[in-house]
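Quick illustration, no need to memorize.
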Amino acid sequence: MPAKRIFESLLLLPVVLLGLSLSVEADDQTRLAPEEIDFDRDIQPVLTRFGCNSGACHGKQRGQNGFQLSLLGFDSDFDHNALAKQTRGRRISLTRPESSLLLRKPLGEAPHGGGVRLKADSDGYQLLLDWIRAGAPRSVPNTPTLKNVTVTPTEKILPHHGKQQLTVIAHYSDGTTRDVTDMSIYQSNEAPIVAVDEDGVVTAGNITGEAAIMARYSGHFAIFTGSVPSPGTAPPPVSLASDHPIDKMVAKTLTRLGLDSSEPAPEHRFLRRAYIDIIGRLPTAEEARTYLSNESAEKRTALVDELLNKPEYAEHWANKWADLLRPNPYRVGIKAVMNYDAWIRGAFRKNQPYDEFVKELITAQGSTFREGNVTLYRDRRTPDELTTIVSQLFLGIRLECAKCHHHPFEVYGQEDFYSFAAYFAKIGHKGTGLSPPISGSEEFVYNRGRGDVRHPLTDEVLAPKPLYGESTEIPEGTDPRIALADWMASADNDYFCQTISNRVWTDLMTMGLVTPVDDLRATNPAVNPELLKYLGDYLAENDFDLKKLIRHIVLSNTYALSSVPTERNAVDTRYFSRHFRERLRAEVLLDSVVQITGIPESFSGMAPNTKAKELWTHRISSLFLDAYGRPDPNQDPPCERTSDPTVVQTLHLMNSENLFNKVTSDKGWAVELAKSELPPEEIVKNLYLAIYSRYPNEKELDIAVNLYDNKESEADALTQRRQSTEDLMWALMNTPEFVFKD
């Protein structure tokens, strides 16, 4: 056999090439001349469109069956080499292009683990064929670069089961455009609400809500928002009819979706909600009685201002931030973590502006025994570790993916990740370092004036550069973290302002404008983008005063809505037509139990009467707090808690020996009530006020008072009175009305 025929036969050996993705015929497009086909501009989109370089196929870390492509085509040099040169170029045949394995396998003409991915009459196939015929060039001189993509339409209100064809246009550096609808990849963030197929046809379901459809092409993406309103004509959300900006923006979304709003919550619900959210405990019986008897039209405003000025505000909100920052003391040292906790609490006690709080944390240096904020750099010791936590916590940008490859749902790649990491390259440490499980030594963090970060592929030294916006010049000898802090904690940095605003909103409203709370990106848009921007701007305009932001939200009608749904908003779980119920935070629940029973909790290594929200580490044992979902002390921060109820929690509250001892203690409030001169009606009212922040209704009062009417003789009256009081207290604390905030 001639050598040429032998060589061409070898090209037909089975090599698994393409995998995953979609079998789709593209619409007719203007065909490019072979000499104009550029690998970056024309071939990579085909490989991406049909899933060849996806994470489930050849884009995985070690490729598939000996053939690897860069994930989503982020490295064209690597991919061109893999196709045209690896294995002696056997994947393509320049002499017989139609026989190339690159084409035969996805057509199903040769064994292919990924199955049929192309059709012979599709534009994707023809592009690959023409590229091979042109000699499989790496690039074409003067090829314009892709600047961005747009989708048309950008938004639309769809009826149930309505459809809409999307059109995606690529815009190039020379001003030309190209319809790339058939070469784009589509994904919905809420497919049950609005789904999208492989051809860019969106279809509304029968669930009321909004969904964002991502159209991605060649590393760029555009977003279409589909709204599916409730059928029929909805009444206007009258409960939100106010001049408060928050109410106006929420009402606008509800009107678009055909949802009405629930009624305003009764005063006792607002009272209980405000106490829990602002200071992390229930109101006492006397506090509830005083508020409910107040007939002033401004009593809510007065209540919120009073709560924000209580010392408990700082402890409650510092406890939340400690979840996000606090490391394991067995890893970094007990004293370091205690200092860290004290620094966080000190910031909230003096109501330090949030931008200053972040700047002090980012630029921290000194001793872990003297400067609590330095503990961040004792726990996270390398630039890449610091990059992930700083970007996620303060910018709402999750960069873990970009550490190894281009982020699949964002614009960030490895160069962005390591350029950001370069801000931390000059951090130095003095001391013995970490020595788990003790790590008791002191360590100093400082700017050592040297150090760099290199690109993992090119080995290029990368200069510090922010993820977006303009970088500022860093003078020689200056700590790069100062420039980072100034850029990041700026009133002009929307990501910074909106991330913390979304976090505060989520704490108060149960559900975030963006979920997860620290994942802000175009492909995960806010349910109310206008409101999120407004809150970020409001915080910046008010000098990053978190108390002012909390006050602004709590005094809106939206915050004060009832949690009871109406017929037209029962389906709403995201748009704030009502308040969403939430199980109490573990520390709030335990501190409330202590307050109601009058018996303090004893924590090992802590002073008497220490509250649960004052604990400096989750390593302090508490079966109650563990049952109700405090973070695992071995889990790396940031630790976002789950508020989902569990059977374990219900059983613990019903059977807890600790709770039983508190309720039945000779020194407890139940005994104090039983021994008092109060009639049974007043005892019952006191218990309802302390546990539910309301008075009992007539039926509840009648049932509870009857508990006191079955004594056999005067001799056992006090015993029976005490037992009835204890039983009622225990029963009320084992109800959803106590365990949940609504």
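The longest helix spans residues 717-733.
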